Backbone:
């Protein structure tokens, strides 16, 4: 099929590359000229495991091309995917300006009947507005079917998720369009669920809100474990044996981040508010998460008192491993809090430093070498569970740091291992280990 993908971000680029690899003729269009130039040379603008080799392959076999020209992109596509950004506005509602702008551009440039498929995460009812835009702006004699096809890929495993996703949601009121979308996705052998458009839009928000709820729930249980002397590892193991609960997304830590959960949960609260349905549960989920981001700095102050002039090693900038995405990462809140307290920070991350530098500039130091970041530090804060951090020999902390105080926001180490080393170790929902000198946490 002739497919165009609008937006060469995490979703659009992965979709374009994977569909091209599946044998379709794909054009990926973006408004950012520099991005398109990089992509034409086979360079990806962000890190995603496995993406660059697939990009090179599909560029060289001619299945994929990149453009900034709307005419070239939209004039003879059979299916057009919208994968532009839907960032949060200050009040938590969704900025739909990119969605509407791209809809106008597509409608004005199509020259044949087309299916327009929204992959971007958009509030319920947005595809109805897109329909209206096409109704008014497309050439009268052409047909444009609007389909909602929300995306569930996870950064860091996006290629695998494209091929091995749990389900594909296709929201449409037209059986013909549903049939074409089924044909497109059939080779992936992933269950396809056909719904009406509004339900498809809601499925995306409800999925992310539910996962965020699991995270905040287990973090609250972890916080309680600390207060009553229980251990979250054992609690999760115990409750996870219940098949109705399971163990996934029950990893206690310093909260969720990234480009989706924070903005999608806030958007759903807004959406509910708009129809006079206060979503109190989700409001609490968001509040718990915000508090969780600041937890380690509060703990550091409890242990050390003032952090003014103290040297902190911040291990992990990305919001999760295997990505260089720092959007809404817990690390950013921690850095801001630490700087406010007067601490001096050296941050380690294997790949997210360039993105962090764009945001934080020279307010902190950076290193891709963990040992260098730890050298002479008064305390270390673990914000991302990178393999390099999880497999760091535990004697490194005492060997390199001035004071081996480790605040682990991702529970990277087994307590029985930590117990063998001369460090002070504070994690989430587990007993504090202090093999250096006794400390007390409230
Ligand atoms: P992104 O910000 O990384 O990329 C969006 C791209 O769209 C940018 O390159 C931008 O230049 C481009 N763009 C903006 N206006 C355009 C236009 N008129 N024509 C062509 N290109 C245009 O965003 P993303 O992370 O890929 O997310 C895209 C959407 O998918 C969002 O709605 C997001 O919520 C959703 N989503 C994201 C993920 C994820 O893991 N990142 C997962 C599932 C769903």
Residues:
């Amino acid at each position: 099929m002739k497919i165009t993908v609008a937006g060469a971000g995490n979703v659009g680029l992965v979709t374009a590359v994977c569909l091209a690899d599946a044998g379709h003729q794909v054009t990926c269009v973006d408004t950012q000229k520099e991005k398109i130039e990089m992509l034409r040379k086979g360079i990806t603008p962000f890190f995603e495991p496995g993406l660059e080799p697939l990009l090179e392959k599909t560029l060289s076999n001619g299945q994929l091309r990149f453009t900034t020209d709307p005419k070239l992109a939209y004039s003879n596509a059979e299916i057009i995917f919208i994968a532009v950004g839907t960032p949060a506005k200050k009040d938590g509602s969704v900025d739909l300006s990119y969605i509407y702008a791209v809809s106008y551009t597509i409608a004005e440039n199509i020259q044949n009947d087309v299916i327009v498929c929204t992959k971007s995460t958009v509030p319920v009812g947005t595809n109805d507005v897109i329909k209206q835009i096409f109704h008014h702006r497309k050439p009268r004699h052409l047909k444009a079917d609007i389909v909602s096809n929300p995306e569930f890929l996870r950064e860091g495993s996006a290629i695998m998720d494209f091929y091995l996703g749990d389900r594909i949601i296709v929201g449409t009121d037209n059986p013909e369009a549903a049939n074409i979308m089924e044909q497109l996705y059939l080779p992936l052998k992933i269950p396809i669920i056909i719904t009406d458009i509004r339900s498809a839009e809601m499925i995306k928000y409800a999925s992310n809100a539910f996962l965020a709820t699991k995270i905040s729930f287990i973090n609250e249980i972890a916080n309680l474990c600390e207060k009553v002397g229980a251990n979250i590892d054992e609690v999760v193991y115990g409750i996870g044996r219940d098949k109705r609960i399971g163990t996934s997304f029950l990893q206690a830590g310093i909260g969720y981040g990234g480009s989706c959960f924070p903005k999608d949960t806030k958007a759903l609260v807004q959406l509910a508010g708009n129809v006079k349905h206060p979503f109190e549960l989700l409001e609490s989920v968001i509040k718990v998460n915000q508090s969780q981001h600041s937890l380690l700095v509060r703990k550091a102050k409890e242990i050390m008192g003032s952090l003014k002039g103290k040297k902190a090693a911040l291990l992990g900038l990305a919001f999760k491993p295997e990505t260089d995405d720092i959007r809404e990462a817990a690390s950013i809140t921690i850095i801001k809090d630490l700087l406010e307290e007067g601490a001096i920070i050296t941050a380690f991350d294997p790949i997210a430093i360039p993105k962090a530098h764009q945001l934080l500039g020279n307010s902190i130091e950076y290193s891709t070498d963990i040992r260098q970041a730890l050298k002479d530090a008064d305390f270390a804060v673990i914000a991302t569970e990178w393999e390099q951090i999880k497999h760091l020999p535990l004697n490194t902390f005492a060997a390199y740091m001035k004071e081996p105080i480790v605040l682990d926001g991702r529970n990277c180490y087994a307590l029985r291992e930590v117990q063998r080393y001369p460090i002070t170790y504070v994690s989430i929902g587990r007993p504090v280990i202090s093999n250096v000198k006794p400390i007390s946490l409230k």
Remarks:
- The first helix runs from residue 10 to 21.
- The chain has a mean pLDDT of 97.
- The domain at 294-434 is CATH 3.40.50.720 (Rossmann fold).
- The chain has 19 helices and 15 strands.
